[in-house]
TrEMBL record:
InterPro entries: 5peptide_repeat, Pentapeptide-BTB/POZ_domain. The keyword Cell membrane does not apply. Transmembrane segments: none annotated. The keyword Transferase does not apply. SUPFAM superfamilies: Pentapeptide repeat-like. Keywords: Coiled coil. Residues 260-298, 352-379 form a coiled coil. This is Pentapeptide repeat. PANTHER family: BTB_POZ DOMAIN-CONTAINING PROTEIN KCTD9.
Length: 449
């Protein structure tokens, strides 16, 4: 509870100059109007700490707290300035934003866990995939907000939320309610019902083989936590929403993240197999063309000679269908893992030399990683192909540090390799290799996981 005596104490300390709250717990403190020049907040716990109208907060030492980013710091000083601000991926953990104006603000992927948004205006704000565990939305205004895949649980406070309607998908799709407005209390009731549900959104259809394998993997990784598909909704344009029921005490954020990572890993393995099959088919066609060309040459030679040629019809075997279905694909052909691994090794070999020898060290590390993938007995050919393609992505990204899109793909590739390694025993070669090599790759590329 905030009290005048507490506010006087913290302001008095701050006014001393060079005050240090290093590693201190400053929860619920009120610095309103205080001058905070040179105050050390490094590694302090600033949950629900009020910085409204503070002076020279930009000259304080924020360390790795939520004060580190200027855009967040300015919002904490002036909560009414957040309209249409881009706060995507921002660290707002524990932020005190009571009565803040965040109308049409972009908070996609932001961490707002433990934050206070009481009476805040979040109308038409983008809250896609925010982490809102322990977050206080009591009496907040949320009409028109996008709540796609936001992470809430029983600790999220939604009492007396003022909301006429929301969207469950981006671009104002999946309006709730479909028509009209929420009646009093309906918004809170709607989301209390999903506290035990993880929503999985697929924007390009669902590969059911990868989906089922992912469900099994995530269940094992979470100590056989019961996972039950409660509904599958087709939203059109290839968009599906799968609702997975989990126990009330389950870590929904962890399950959602692990599902996404494992699904992408399985999907890459399936796509690698399809690509190998298509490549094999193209090779067959090329071989046919070459043979046909040779036959034409032979025909021309024989045609110039005074002999009779008996022409026999050649019945070519029917072509296998290349239509991709969601059925069993285990017997559709052999995956040329060796060819894929050779291709990846060639990509690594093409990494250019550098003056400080860093590239050579990276090449050596990637080669070791490929060796571990190739010899890992616990992986099937699909998983090896998927892992190898992730290494290829990393190798390409190392040569184009200015390519932001490629760097994001490399970050994703590292995460997928980490996820793959977690499914192995510590004694496995690939597990050991990932533990030692992936941190080196992260440092070399300068990426943040």
């Amino acid at each position: 509870m905030r009290g005048p005596w507490l506010r006087k104490i913290v302001i008095a300390f701050a006014a001393m100059g060079d005050t240090s709250f290093y590693k201190a717990t400053v929860t619920d403190a009120d610095f309103t109007g205080a001058t905070l020049k040179n105050v050390n907040f490094n590694r302090a716990i600033l949950t629900r700490t009020c910085f409204k109208d503070t002076v020279k907060l930009n000259l304080a030492r924020p360390g790795n707290t939520l004060l580190e980013k200027p855009i967040v710091r300015d919002l904490l000083i002036n909560p009414s300035s957040g309209e249409e601000k881009d706060l995507s991926k921002a660290n707002l953990r524990g932020a005190y934003l009571k009565e803040a104006n965040l109308q049409r603000a972009n908070l996609k992927n932001a961490d707002i866990s433990g934050a206070t948004f009481e009476y805040a205006n979040l109308s038409s704000a983008n809250l896609t995939e925010v982490n809102a565990v322990y977050t206080n939305f009591n009496s907040a205004y949320l009409t028109g907000a996008c709540l796609e895949n936001w992470n809430i649980d029983t600790t999220t406070k939604l009492d007396n939320v003022d909301c006429q309607y929301v969207y469950l998908l981006n671009n104002e799709k999946e309006r709730q309610p479909s028509s009209g407005d929420f009646k009093t209390g309906e918004f809170t009731k709607l989301f209390e019902e999903v506290f035990d549900t993880v929503n999985l959104i697929f924007e390009n259809g669902i590969d059911w083989k990868a989906f089922i394998e992912t469900m099994k993997t995530v269940q094992v990784e979470n100590e056989d936590t019961p996972l039950e598909v409660s509904s599958i909704e087709n939203k059109g344009d290839g968009v599906f929403v799968v609702k997975v029921k989990v126990p009330p005490d389950a870590d929904k954020e962890k399950i959602h993240q692990e599902f996404e990572e494992n699904y992408q890993l399985k999907l890459q393995a399936v796509e690698a197999k399809y690509k190998a099959l298509l490549d094999a088919k193209e090779n067959e066609i090329s071989s046919y063309h070459r043979e046909n060309a040779n036959m034409m040459e032979i025909t021309k030679i024989l045609a110039s000679r005074p002999i009779n040629i008996e022409t026999k019809a050649m019945n070519n075997s029917p072509d296998n269908s290349t239509n991709i279905t969601t059925g069993d694909i285990n017997n559709t052909g052999n995956l040329n893992t060796g060819k894929i691994i050779k291709d990846v090794n060639n990509t690594i070999d093409n990494i250019s030399e550098s003056d400080n020898n860093e590239n050579e060290q990276l090449k050596t590390s990637l080669k070791e990683l490929m060796q571990a993938i190739e010899t890992e007995n616990e992986l099937d050919d699909e998983e090896k192909a998927g892992a190898a393609n992730n290494v290829k992505t990393i190798a390409k990204a190392s040569q184009k540090p200015e390519d932001e899109g490629l760097q994001k793909k490399a970050t994703r590739a590292v995460k997928l390799l980490e996820t793959l390694a977690k499914g192995l025993k510590p004694a496995n070669k690939l597990y050991t290799a990932c533990q030692s090599i992936l941190p080196q790759i992260v440092t070399f590329l300068g990426i943040t996981l």
